[in-house]
Amino acid sequence: MLVLGQDEKAKYPFLADAGEYLKDKGFSLVQFGSDPVLKLSVEKALHRIKVAAAGEVYKSDLIDGQASKDYVLEREVFSFLLAIVLIKLTGMSTLIKRFALAESRRAENYLEKDLGNASNKSKIDLATRIIYDLFNIEITKENDFFVIPVSDYLKHSVTFHEREWKLINRHVENGKVFLTPDKTVRLIRKELGNYISSKIINAPKPSMIPGLENIVNELILISKKLTPTYTITTGEYPPCIKHAINVLEKGENLPHSGRFMLATFLLSKGQTVPQIVPLFKNAPDYNPRVTLYQLNHLAGTSGSATKYTCPSCEKLKTQDLCFITKECDNIINPLQFGKKRT
Amino acid sequence: MNEIDIKFLEDSFKKYYFNHFDLITSPERTSEREFGYQKFNSGMFRHISLKDNKELHLLFMQNIPSDVYCSNAYYAFPNSPMSEKDWKEADLIFDIDAKDLNLSCRKNHTISICNECNEISKNTSQCVKCNSTKLEKKSLPCKNCIDASKIEVNKLSNVLINDLGIDKENIHVYFSGNEGFHVYVYHSQFQQMGSKERSELVDYIMFRGAIPETFGMKKFKPNRSLFPDFNQKGWNGRFSKYVFGSKSKRSKIISELLDSGYPSFQKTLDDVSENIGVKIDPNVTMDIHRIFRLPGSINSKSGLSKILCTDLTKFDPYADACFLNDDSVEVLANCPIEFKLKNKKFGPYINQKISLPTYAAVYMICKKLATIA
Questions:
Q1: N or C, where is chain A less crowded by C-beta within 10 Å?
Q2: How many domains does chain B have?
Q3: Which residues contact B261 (CB under 8 A, 6 or more apart)?
Q4: What pTM does this model have?
Q5: How many Cβ pairs closer than 8 A exist between chain A and B?
Q6: Catalytic residue among B281, B311, B320, B326
Q7: Is residue B121 part of a domain?
Q8: Mean pLDDT, consecutive 10-residue segments, chain A of 342 residues?
Q9: Residues 6+ apart with CB under 8 A from B279
């Protein structure tokens, strides 16, 4: 178990045990609804959520990661814990997501600074300990770099869409990947976000605290405005899918990876296996039994029951299956083609 | 395949399995593996679990399979349906196949068998007799094919050892029994990695998806000091050796690259990928539920055995993986291409009745280029 100093609790408040922290300080939740001094913390919590909801990172009152006064530190931790309570009271999952993301970005800044702080070994040690304790990734320092095993790197990087995160674009040596402090921290951003959101999700839902009703209602309104809606701009298939269909229609060979893309795309669009089978009839090696077996497998109706999803644009690029046009409009998966977020 | 041919192949295989059981050893942690086998002219039997070597031998003797397979994965319940097997981990396996190497020699030793009229010819686009385009292609790989595959194996081993930190002792190279090699990696940090992660590893090994910035080329304000150098480890070092050629040319070539600009650098990377990327079959490595030909078993596409190569440089599959007997047998052969087995030349045969040693007869029958007379 990590032993945190005062400043660390403010920097990484999600590591603190919420209930224990309040008890240690001699407070109960109900007091925050009525006590005018404690209300300052509630306002700070509200501000913290609003900033996160707007997609920004909350700037704390810490100076260079240090709390100038004890009460500043306390308010930092209180506002975080109260924000969780408020979000739980709204019951809005959009808020959980946004708050977890913003808080993880905030923690990321501190982790990055701590890792990059070449003169302070104890700061580096704490940051690597946090990463190890939370995500079971062992990071060691080699000169100016942080090195992690290739398998650990891949476990996290496969979810990234940017090409620079492909292993080929990293310095790899002797089974290890060499990363700068910012990349090291960026690698665990999602897990950090997941960790914080799971803390919120798993926290018990408190009963309404008298005096906080208005704040909770305000947050519910904010959250409702955030839920995105999509408008369909075109019903056409993306160019990669059109190309694949063309190849098959001409009776030419579409590689396995192309067939996988086409089938998973159509399945995700709600087509059924019998609707998709005829597309493959012209393939030079068409075998109805095999086609049916493979489609059912992809649809998750046979075999491992895993439903396969359409590969990302990045993956398709490396398989020479991408035929990008300007209509693609920065999508990262063919399934997003022709939908616009409004 | 007709029944007489099948009977002959089964008899020959059975003799091999009876006399060469020493070549077949059950893999480590046998009871956690899934086994499968095929018989001639029939489908695949999968989801079989075996306790030990004894049970494996029994499978061979009772079924006389044409091909036997074993999973690279370890399961809690190998004989359950796929979704209930409870996957634990899998050895990392690479497949290098001569047919994927775009070799110029291939057209010289590829034969087409017409699906409509069974005509055999060296024309690979359509049947010379009935003009049908439905052709089954059979290749009799040559020394060049094997040598080119060996080069890829060596390239792969280099990346595995130097970049991915795998101990040399944990890399086992097997001749696949037909046109290439299977490279097994045991006890690595990658054992528990899933399919997506393995696919990323494949891209690394094949040099796919590289961006110019990784190799020193920036979009804005490019700077020559960022380009890689010869003594660097990993792909940076290999890139230098391939693109710059020699230390004396490095500076001049960097100037040329800077002059050609950022978009053209992507073409340089494509060229690097094509020439020094390792040519492995990506689908094989990323499949964590596949069953692979069992080492020591015969490949029914050739009659040759899948066999461990202890000295890859000296390894000659047509001598070292050919274990069937020399008993003479009469076949009707239609094999327009010469081939060599156990250091003896055979063919070409044009619709010829001829007596041949069993191993050569099996080779041609497996390739559908002969039948028992």
A1: N
A2: 2
A3: none
A4: 0.82
A5: 87
A6: B281
A7: no
A8: 73 78 80 84 92 85 62 82 92 89 89 83 84 87 92 92 93 96 89 87 86 90 77 80 89 87 92 87 82 88 78 88 90 88 62
A9: B96, B100, B101, B152, B206
